[in-house]
Amino acid sequence: MSTCSITGLKQQLIKSKELNTVWNYFFDLMKETGSLRKDNTTIPKPKEEDTLIAVLTIIENIVGQKLDRKVTFINLMFNKVSDSHFYHGFCMIKGFSQPLSIFYFLDVEMGSFLYNKNGRSEMFRFSLTTTTDPNTLIKH
Q1: Residue ranges of the domains in the chain?
Q2: Are 33 and 55 a contacting pair, CB within 8 Å?
Q3: Closest CA to 122 of 93, 83, 79
Q4: What is the largest CA-CA distance in the chain?
Q5: What tens digit of pLDDT does each residue of 25-78 get?
Q6: Helix, strand, coil: what percent of the chain each, to 5?
Q7: Which residue in 100, 97, 94 sits closest to 112, CA to CA?
């Protein structure tokens, strides 16, 4: 019996302070349910999918800042799990050999991505909405 769920992953993403915990849950979910579930819908052109355009733009900006260069995503493969507002997939950063993994929840406009930089995993949480939660504000 599966102990992980998409709803559980969403709660982990929203509440967990440690992204390692979130990504371990994600990988356990994929392992338990299979990475290509029968209720997935493949998105043939992610760069033309309204929901993913903003997600990919934010991620390109963050990764570009971290790598100190403009990045281009290639070989994008995304799925949407039916009736769940959950997207997941991966792509390559042009010039890198490791994939960038992404998941995103449309209903809470929040997601996370992971990639390798110099043999070390870099994990990020992102949101498409502005938050006023004092715990997430950065003092300038």
Answers
A1: 6-127
A2: no
A3: 93
A4: 48
A5: 999 998 887 754 666 788 878 888 888 888 999 899 888 888 888 999 999 989
A6: 35, 30, 35
A7: 100
Q: What is the mean pLDDT of the chain?
A: 83
Beta pairing partners, 115: 122
User: What is residue 12's predicted lDDT score, i.e. its pLDDT?
Assistant: 95
Distance CA(12)–CA(111), nearest Å, equals: 11
Tell me the whole-structure pTM to 2 decimals.
0.83
Contact 80, 43 (CB under 8 A): yes
Per-residue tokens: 107: 């209903």
The answer to whether the beta carbons of residues 51 and 106 sit under 8 Å apart is yes
Structure tokens at 134: 């004092």
| Coil vs helix vs strand at 120 | strand
Task: Give CA–CA dist 34/94, Å, rounded.
Answer: 27
Q: Which two tokens stand for residue 65?
A: 């800042």
Who's near 79: CB < 8 A, 6+ residues apart? 36, 37, 40, 41, 42, 43, 87, 88, 89
